[in-house]
Hints:
Blueprint lengths: L2 E9 L9 H8 L7 H15 L4 H20 L3 E9 L6 H10 L5 E5 L9 H15 L3 E3 L7 H15 L11 E7 L4 H4 L4 H16 L4 E6 L13 H12 L3 E5 L8 H4 L1 H13 L2 E4 L7 H16 L2
Parallel strand pairs: 1-2, 1-3, 3-4, 5-6, 5-7, 7-8
Helix pairs in contact: 3-12, 4-5, 6-8, 6-12, 9-11
Family: Belongs to the ferrochelatase family.
InterPro entries: Ferrochelatase, Ferrochelatase_AS, Ferrochelatase_C, Ferrochelatase_N
Protein name: Coproporphyrin III ferrochelatase
Amino acid sequence: MKRRIGVLVMSYGSPESLEQVEAYYTHIRRGNPPTAEQLKDLTDRYEAIVGGVFPLKENTDKQVKALEDRLNADHPELAFSCYQGLKHAAPFIEDGVEQMVKDGVKEAVGIVLAPHYSVMSIGGYIKRAEAKAAELGLPIKFVTSYHLHPRLIQALSERVTDTLARFGDTPKDEIRVLFTAHSLPEKIREMGDPYPDQLMETSRAIAGQTGVTNWQFGWQSAGQTGTPWLGPDILDLLRTVSKEEHVKNVLVCPIGFVSDHLEVLYDLDIEAKKTARELGIHLERTPSLNTDPLYMATLSDEVYALVDGK
């Protein structure tokens, strides 16, 4: 019998239909239903991206399956089974842990589909999974971050290089590369949270590998909570580089996101591109990682490192 390893693959989650948006939004708001205006705004965004089709769930399903296949191909002496655990939709993180136990898994590893650690993001996933695993007596280890894994940097660098070609004969140094990630409340800086530093480390690594010197970092998709969030926001950044530096070409590489979902398909492809058009900026975005073999290899390496370290 092969040694069996359960892998809890965690991510944010998404509604699967327009009818599920309200319940999903209520869960994000910790049980407080959104106002009619808030619900309409989110529903309109989902309808705008691809006519109400919900790509994140399907993308996550494919990533989980691809990771399982990659782990078993890379390490045929072991038997890996991957389980989903979502933060704000079913199957929830606790459901994934419970299913592993029901299936007889005795050893587990958890990993989040996000390369950069914050106590407010990945830390929250791990806390929930740890609590359920402890309740059920399941030993589980966690990958906390993988923001400088060579294969991840290679995958992102290839996307930057390929997307630069869309600007034709424009010299590379005339194209402003903006690396972005999901904003978080500013208070994480006071906490000494590694999230901003890890994002800058990833950005520098990609810039170094691609020979890009004209770059900066921006934030996106900040929540509306009444407290300050990390900035500058990408929309403000576009206005600044256009009006103050007369930048006409921008490449956006959303290094904090590994899949096509709302923050990419709406916040960048619709909202940011609209702002860019109004400013006379040619804006291009690097394709998402999704099931890129280099990304799957990154995840496989990180999971196996914890298994092998036993």
